[in-house]
Amino acid sequence: xxxxxxxxxxxxxxxxxxxxxxxxxxxxxxxxxxxxxxxxxxxxxxxxxxxxxxxxxxxxxxxxxxxxxxxxxxxxxxxxxxxxxxxxxxxxxxxxxxxxxxxxxxxxxxxxxxxxxxxxxxxxxxxxxxxxxxxxxxxxxxxxxxxxxxxxxxxxxxxxxxxxxxxxxxxxxxxxxxxxxxxxxxxxxxxxxxxxxxxxxxxxxxxxxxxxxxxxxxxxxxxxxxxxxxxxxxxxxxxxxxxxxxxxxxxxxxxxxxxxxxxxxxxxxxxxxxxxxxxxxxxxxxxxxxxxxxxxxxxxxxxxxxxxxxxxxxxxxxxxxxxxxxxxxxxxx
RNA sequence: GUUUCGCAAUAGCUG
Length: 333
Description:
With 333 residues, the protein is mainly α. It has 20 helices and no strands. The protein binds one RNA strand of 15 nucleotides through α1, α3, α5, α7 and α9.
């Protein structure tokens, strides 16, 4: 059974329906139907490969169901954006646990329905840190940063221990409204409480300082940070670029290329092009748009076209900009 | 079965 558990986990990750179907028939043949954790894993596989009709059949046939069974199916529907079906299953659960409630909050939030998310959040019999994070994140994701910070203050007031996810969300909210004082306060809070400065928190701090007009503090965090991933570099490159330090941003991009363990990605290229645009580096911008993208296997998205068109048009090269728009292989927006 | 389920940071233009 543990072998199957392992295989099913891999199958869920790869979202391969054929593999799932094979594993399904094998578990049945071997008489593992009574192992509820294997049935749940199978259910999850069908959900991950977006076969909710098959998942539903399996669910209906299952001899026994536990909390994970219900949660897996609710999550499956929520992931597809079918909150109607998710609600239907949810309402059949005798006593949904905190995970299931949180799944509903996230599901509504991902559909952009913050008020429904909030209704479920308020109705929860008990909440843990992930539930609070889900609701705070919901406000951040749906551009209601003030509400996010308001809820974050509730976490503080209730003497509830935030974790690094809570902090990252709150910093993101500060960044989007330029709340430097609150951002600094949070920075102090996480230092005082011995939060480990991992790449996620580091990135959130760099982004917050950059967007609140404190690019020097952002650089300070960046330099002191031990672990950096590509998002960390991206946040710093973008931070420099949007604060008018185009040259420094491009220098940092060179360092990023040289450091080895991070790959420049789509977000990096946006920052690099932005830096060129703000610094007036036209030739360098062309170079990055045409060659850097190829070199690092970065797919050119509409954002990249916007940046390069902006770069050219801003410097009077209207014909070239128009030519690029005409020859775009993707739909211009 | 040290798990089968929930929460996370970085992106352009119009501005």
